[in-house]
Design goal:
14 helices; two-stranded antiparallel ribbon; mainly alpha
Length: 378
């Protein structure tokens, strides 16, 4: 039997107890209270395992279950009434989990992690290409990001890229490790926030948790380096290949779907592996990834236009205006990612079918809170 997606006695088998998530502290008590309420309801209506095996739940007659997607094996099988239930609970959980406050905490740690991450990026990129070229490619983000964040990151990249090549090589061995460790704090904060969205407690040991988040941090930096390298090779390819003007315009337009695809892939991987729970199937993390990617792109462009045309951050904050704009953009981006996670969680919460990897298991034995319980209906 499990409680909240974590097996009883599991904590005793941990190598080292993981510290309480700093970002999740204000809302973790709400998550625990929600679990206790669900446990009390289980006592009145029978065990969750019995509900899954019988196909019944206390929210309505069996005839309504199919109409509400209680037996959906994937989001594509979720009927319209089921989606309405999911969206209703998603809005409620965004409010109850205080997503805007959690996102502010993640944004703070992410801002602190950005500049060590830039140092690590330049160190890695400088091993196989001219690090100064990274700064040139930052201008491509000007259509998406506000001018302040682009300028801040470009200036930091320029300072790091001006270091002698010998120092960059040494940074790949020593300073790179320190930069990765510092940048990893932002990734840890994101993992903690996703645990809140999925109703989980961090059950990994400190060693395992740090190793996983470091792997994600390094993967994010390497992916960014590869994308920037591809951007550097694209103009060369356009000059060599006999492509017409229309083909060049098509490639210029095609960068936006490519950007959305990269964000969908990145957020889906994050939703799948970051929460401390049994892994969800890909089909259950893709909807939130698609929503996050599209909303993030639109919100980033809208915020960039707002900063350029309406907001007076420079007049209000003076020299700190660019930093405030940068942190506000990070906060908005993190909120969008967390809303996508809440959507995924409530999709799993809507069905009695097993949404986790492996052989189907009965409710209560799936190792994930939202897979082991059924969400309330409006």
């Amino acid at each position: 039997m499990q409680t909240g997606g974590m097996p009883q006695g599991h904590a005793a088998r941990l190598l080292f107890p993981a510290p309480e998530p700093a970002v999740a502290l204000p809302v973790m008590r709400r998550v625990q209270e929600r679990r206790r309420r669900m446990t009390a309801e289980d006592g009145r209506t029978g065990t969750l395992r019995g509900q899954a095996e019988s196909g019944l739940d206390p929210d309505g007659a069996p005839a309504e279950h199919e109409a509400r997607g209680r037996h959906a094996r994937g989001p594509d099988e979720m009927p319209m009434r089921g989606w309405k239930d999911v969206l209703w609970r998603t809005v409620r959980q965004v409010i109850e989990d205080r997503v805007e406050a959690v996102a502010a905490g993640v944004a703070f740690y992410t801002l602190l992690a950005i500049f060590p991450g830039i140092t690590a990026l330049i160190s890695i990129y400088g091993l196989f290409a001219d690090p100064a070229a990274v700064v040139e490619h930052m201008t491509l983000l000007g259509d998406v990001l506000p001018a302040g964040p682009v300028q801040l990151m470009s200036e930091q990249m320029l300072r790091v890229s001006r270091q002698p090549q010998g120092q960059l090589g040494f940074g790949a061995l020593f300073s790179l490790a320190i930069a990765l460790w510092s940048a990893n704090q932002g990734m840890k904060a994101m993992f903690d926030a996703l645990d809140v969205a999925y109703g989980e407690r961090q059950s990994r040991s400190f060693v395992v948790f740090t190793a996983v988040t470091l792997g994600f941090t390094l993967a994010a930096i390497l992916s960014t380096a590869l994308v920037l390298a591809a951007l550097a090779l694209l103009p060369v390819a356009l000059d060599v290949l006999p492509l017409g003007t229309s083909a060049e315009q098509l490639l210029d337009i095609g960068r936006w779907p490519l950007l959305v695809l990269i964000v969908v892939l990145g957020t889906s991987v994050l939703y799948r592996y970051a929460p401390s729970r049994r892994t969800a199937r890909w089909r259950w993390v893709t909807p939130g990834g698609c929503l996050a990617a599209l909303v993030w792109l639109i919100a980033s462009m809208a915020f960039s236009w707002y900063v350029a045309n309406l907001a007076g951050y420079d007049r209000m904050y003076g020299p700190l205006g660019a930093v405030v704009v940068f942190m506000t953009w990070i906060w908005i981006s993190v909120m969008i990612v967390l809303v996508g996670a809440e959507l995924n969680a409530e999709l799993e919460h809507q069905t009695a079918c097993d949404s986790t990897e492996g052989q189907p298991k009965p409710m209560g034995r799936r190792g994930a809170y939202v897979a082991d319980t059924l969400g309330k209906l409006p």
